[in-house]
Each structure stands twice: as structure tokens, then as C-alpha cells.
Fold this sequence. Notes:
Shape: rod-shaped
Distance between the termini: 59 Å
Number of helices: 14
Order of helices and strands: HEEEEHHHEEHEEHHHHEHHEEHEEHHEE
Number of strands: 15
Strand content: 15-25%
Largest sheet: 5 strands, mixed
Amino acid sequence: MIIAILSIALLGLIYIQSIYVKRGLFIQNQIFDQYVNEALVRTALKLEEAQAYNIINNTYIPDFYNTSQAINGDTDMSIEYVNGEINLDVQKDEANYRFTGTTMQEIDSLVKASDLDKDIQTELNEGLLEEYKKLLENMTMQFLYGNKNNLALDSQLISNTLNFEFTRLGINTPFNFALIDGYTFHKIISTFTRINASTQKNSYKTPIHTNNFTGEHAILMVDFPKKKSYILKSNSTLLSFSFFFVALIAVSFGASIYIIYRQKKLSELKTDFINNMTHELKTPVATISLATEMLKKEKVRQDPEKLLNYNNIISTENKRLGSHIEKVLQIAELDRNSVKLNLETADFHELINETINKFKLRLEDAKAEISVSLNATKSKVSVDKNHMSNVLSNLVDNAIKYRNVERPLKINIETKNENNKLIFIITDNGIGMNASDAKKIFTKFYRVPTGNIHNVKGFGLGLSYVKTIIDELKGEVQVKSELNKYTKFTLTLPTTK
Length: 497
């Protein structure tokens, strides 16, 4: 139930977090679009201004303009435009008149103030207006149509303007742009390698009026090939922290599940251990109790042979009981890290021989064939003799207990030296174990499962004790095994001089 609730909470948190992340990216995308459109509008205004200046600067205004005409039989008029000044020359009979001014209004005032008669003044003004009208029309036509094919928008100008506007708004990502004719849709300028329908659809666009008088315009199109990665990078800090905390919660959740299952399994192992320990302790206690009751009988007390037999039973069972209690106390001490190793230099080969002699009767009873190859030339090690003797005893004891009753037991013991280390190997042809069990046998209370059959007694503490002692001695212990074939334990210990 706890795991289910935590799973729902974690999934809900991840879902909500993903929604917030998506919303954040959507808002960031909207801001990006807004900034780009603003930059394009400002760019268009600057480009339109540049184009307007270009049109004005390239409009042809003549520095010199001259025309003449006859007003009537005895009066001629000529008009001259030189560097912004208007000169009107009038010849009447043999008299010459010149009027100079900068505007038509000024010339008209001068003519009216002259001593020319009214009819001539009227004709002069009409002729002057006609000629000046022709000059203005000529200049206007050039202004409107004379620069149609002279577009003053080059690639560098557009690129620099866009770069400036994007940088001003904090957009720093590569872009492509193109300038397309507003009527024909032909490319005028382009940095795209290829423009397809998808590019045109997804690009940002804005019109640029290249000539407001004629209605000519172009379309500026901009695309950001790395837009998605840029937006993600812009939110990288937020996303990183978000993913980090979600991952942290997920890892903590996973660790919690692992600890729950581990505690559950440990509880089962401890329950099994208590059951086994109760059974193991109950047997010698029951035997001692039975023997004690027999000793109370008069008939038994009067028979020396029976008396000695029951005393031996009590003594044997008492030692057995003490041995079980000692094993439990050893593990308790190791759990509290209160064990203190009395290190001394010892000959490992002597410890091996002592262990073999200790198990001589049991080996004979099991009809075991044992071979010993003590090949190590450096057999001196720094160990606690008592604990190391227990380690070797546990390994030999396991080889005897977990033998295959269908074939003779064979035990091989070997030592050798490698890189100033002593290697101890004990191999038996017992029932073996699979790879999964081989990884767990050094776990406290763990016993290889054999179904409902418990023909091998024990607490599951022996190999845990072995690993703890070897680790304390800065050594290593490894196991290799195959089910129904063999089991091989390898101890590695540093040698001493």
C-alpha cells in the first residue's frame, strides 16, 4: 500500500512538473515570436528609410535648364534654370529685360513691378508657368520611376540590421533571411540553401515598402534553424533543476522500495534463523534434560557404565549447545564492530593442518577423499589465529555438510603465492549452487533454499562470519560454483616478511 501510494504521488509529481515545463517552454516560445516580430518591424522601418533616402539621392535634378519662345511678333522670352536660380530674359523691340529669382512667385512680382505693359506681363507669366510645369513634371517622373530597378537593399545591410535588432532584444542564435519580390515572389536576396513550402510556412515575415509612391514592396523572410535548441538552452537552468529534483525524488523512492524489500527479506531471514536456532538449541537441551532425568533413577546410579554413558551424553550436548551460542555471540560482536583481532604472525600451512586434524573423524565418517597441495613458498600471514581457525573450520564444515550423498566426497585444498599474497583454495564436488545463490551466500542469515527439506542444519552465519574476518584482515574472499558439480572458495591474504 505504501509503495502504491508513493508510486501514484511520484507519477503525479512528474506529470505536473512536465505540464509546468511545457507551459514554460510555450511562454518562452511566445516571447521569442514577439521579440522576432518586433525586430522585423524595426528592421523594415530602417530598410524603408534607407530605400527612401536612396531614391531621393538618385533622382536627377538638372543643374541647367533653358528654353525660349516667341510671345508675339516683337517680343521674345527665354527661361533659364541654373543651380537653383531662375533667369527670365525678355526682348521687346530693341529693349532687353532680365528678371532673376529663386521662385516663381518672386519672378512674378518682379515682372509685375516692371514697366512692361499688362498684356506682355500676362503672356510672360503664362509662358513661364508652362515651362516650369514641364521642368517639374520631368523631375517628378524621374523621382517616381527612374529608380525602379535600383533597389538599395544589399545582403550586408539587411544582415547587419537584423543582427543589431536581434541582439538588442537578447536573441543570439543563427538565422537565415531572404528578400522576396512582393508581386512575383522571386528571390532578390537570400541566405537560404533552399526555400520550400515548409520553410515559407514556418518563417517569420514582414513587408518592406521599397517605393511608397508606386506601391512597390518586398517581403523579408527570416528563419531560425536552431530555434528549439536555443529555447531549450535559454531554459536550461530551470529544466536542469527540475529534472534534478525529480530524479532525486525518483532515486529516493527507488531506494525506499529497495530498503522496504530488503528489510522484509531480512525479517524473513531472521525469522528463519530464530526457528533454526530454536530447533538447534532445543535438541541438546531436550537431550540433557532426558539424561538428567535418567540419572535420578536408582537403577542407573547403581550401574557405573550407564552412569558414565549419560555423563558423556550431557557433556557432548553441553559442548554442542555452547558451540551454537558461541556462533551467535560472534556474529553479535561483529555487528557491534566490537570484535578485536589479536594479530600475530602465523604459518598458514600450520593452521590448515590443524583444521584438517580437527575434522579427521568427520572426514572419515563422510568417507571423504581429501588432497592437500601446499605450494605457497611464503606462508607467513598476520592473522588472529583463533578467528582464522574458525574461518577454515567453517569452509571445511560446509564442504562436509553440503556433500552430494550420491557420490564420494572429494575435497581439494591448495595454496600458492601471487604478488606477495597468499592464495588459499578449497574445492569440493558437493551439491553446488547457482549463480544467483552464489552472490548471496555471504549475506547474514542467508541459506541456499532447498524447498521444504531441511536436512542440513545451520544458522546461515558461517560464511557471513568468513567474509567479515577476511575483510578485517584486508583480504578477499570469492566463490565459484555450479549446481550439482562443484563449489570453490578462494581466500586472498597479504603475506608478511
